[in-house]
């Protein structure tokens, strides 16, 4: 079991938490999701290898997570700890393929592997799967990237291997393309912020 409380202390904790006192409008706080869309090939294959991680579990369904500063600190500590524990390596370097989503059990992985591990660790502290959504974004240079979205009553937050901060989604430098549905882990929905496919996808 990992120990996270020491990972978020002092100035690091202050850097890793973004807690805005301003009240933004609902459109800025929450992603506007659209119709069902293609799932990333990597996630499709991941679900084939680990069906228990992608099944619909009524116990994991529900509304957005009630969020307070104490819980955000716990989430931030996990974000910092996972980022520090994994060495960034491409799927090509690790597995000889362009796209493979998996848990970085050998302490090496690509962006989606960080996000999968954060999801698993946050599930372990009692956050429901409906509020931990794998998400595809586009960087400013056009490159595809994967992050984890935390769905809360205060808006959608992003855990990213490229940042110590847990940020509101609108405070990130990304264009948001699609994410897992909150009611079916295998299903993906489009995000109004962006429409282009940026990683390999499979249509069902």
Structural class given helices, strands, pairing?
Answer: alpha+beta
Note the beta-strand portion. Answer: 25-35%
Order of helices and strands: HHEEHHEHEHEEEEEEE
| Low-pLDDT stretches | 1-15, 17-25, 194-204
Taken from the alpha-carbon principal axes, the silhouette is globular
Oligomer: single chain
- List the total number of helices: 6
Main beta sheet strand tally, sense and closure:
7 strands, antiparallel
If you average the pLDDT, what whole number results? Answer: 86
Intertermini distance: 37 Å
Helical content class: 25-40%
The strand line-up of the biggest sheet is 1-10-9-5-6-7-8
Radius of gyration: 16 Å
Number of strands: 11
Description:
With 204 residues, the protein is an alpha+beta fold. The protein is 27% helix and 25% strand. The protein has 6 helices and 11 strands. It has helices at 10-16, 26-29, 41-49, 69-85, 91-95, 111-124, and strands spanning 33-37, 39-40, 87-88, 108-109, 132-138, 144-152, 155-159, 167-168, 175-181, 184-191, 201-202. The strands form 3 sheets. The chain has a 7-stranded antiparallel beta sheet. It has a two-stranded antiparallel sheet with strand order 2-11. A hairpin with a 2-residue loop joins strand 9 and strand 10 (184-191). The longest helix has 17 residues, at 69-85. The chain is globular and about 40 Å long.
Attribute tags:
6 helices; 27% helix; disordered C terminus; disordered N terminus; 7-stranded antiparallel beta sheet; 204 residues; alpha+beta
